[in-house]
Amino acid sequence: MSNTSANSPSPGLHVLTLTPFFPSQNDDSGGCFIAEPLACLETLHIQNSVIAMQPVYRRKLRMRNSLVDADWLRYFSLPGRLGLPSAGAFLFARILGRVRSLHSKRPIRLIHAHAPLPAGHTAMLLSRELGIPFVISVHGLDVFSTNQANGWVADWSRRISRRVYAAARRVICISEHVRETILQGMGRISRTSVVYNGVNPDLFSPGPESAHDRLSILSVGNLIPIKGHDLLIRAVASLAPEFPNVSLEIIGEGIERPYLEKLTEQVGVRTKVHFHGRRSRTEVAQAMKRCTLFALPSSYEGLGCVYLEAMACGRAVIGCRGQGIAEIIQHGSNGFLVGAHNEKELTLALGILLRDSQKRQTLGISARDTILDRLTLQQQARNLARIYRECAE
Fold this sequence. Notes:
By secondary structure, this protein is α/β, with parallel strands linked by helices. It folds into two domains: 13-198 and 376-392, Rossmann fold (3-Layer(aba) Sandwich); 215-374, 3-Layer(aba) Sandwich (Rossmann fold). It is built from twelve helices and 13 strands. The strands form two sheets. Strands 3-2-1-4-5-6-7 form a seven-stranded parallel beta sheet, with helices on both faces. The protein has a six-stranded parallel beta sheet with strand order 10-9-8-11-12-13, with helices on both faces. Helix 6 links the parallel strand 8 (215-220) and strand 9 (246-251). It is globular, with a radius of gyration of 21 Å.
């Protein structure tokens, strides 16, 4: 079992983290929002033992060498949506002996599960079996796992998710938007707290903007319909006559890529839009430092780490109203907010920022200050440590 201080365990609180998201050699950005605060928690005398799980039908991931390692574990699960509500029980059977052994060597005071299915379900079963309290973090808006299934599978997923939330000592939400979604579905009986994701302000720090004769819009996110990349492409096409040197740099992979590539040809901006695929954390940070501005018009976002990272790099950022990021961005003060699915408003906002370098600079400075004031990894870790200690007692 890997942990944050295997050679010299601290006398502090011992937490077992269960997560389906964690950085690997295949993808060092996957689950970074879970892994990165753990080193900061260690300085607060919180020791984490991490089990990162994946179903057997997916490609095996290799552990990534880092300050905080995980014990990668594969478990049986039915493939696809059918396996979602039953996976927690299979995972519980797979790891019970391992957790018992770990608990006997050094008592686990708290279990922290990430997402209700399957990790939260497993944490609830471990809590009942071993008498260890658990908390659960919710990282997106599909809080009952019903968007991934339908019919009786969705009903089953909802029932289990509700039981998990009701049994948890605390439901940790990444935004008020996520918390409200949970409370609406739970009848406001869950014990909830909001802990915003934090940013490493050293990795994501300001750099020189692209030369004024090169204007670049950066977008980072999975290429799926809700992210709004098609709106960005159309907006760039509308702005191209006024800004012939503008480019759109897209980092990410997904099922939408063939459609988006074809769209660039249809609207006449094939040479202005560049698809870079998946990139490492360092490469993403460098791209954010170089870009003129950052935009991701996502219409279904619990928070969005990439907005915070771009803000930490001192960049003007465009997000959508009604999403989690609207709790962080104050329109016109430290970024811009536009309507979801609103191509006209997005085009207008992009045009304003492309024309006005002083406005971009002012927004970027305020954005960086916002991160430093309340959204660093250390601040996230302090909030988590407080909740851990409250719930472990």
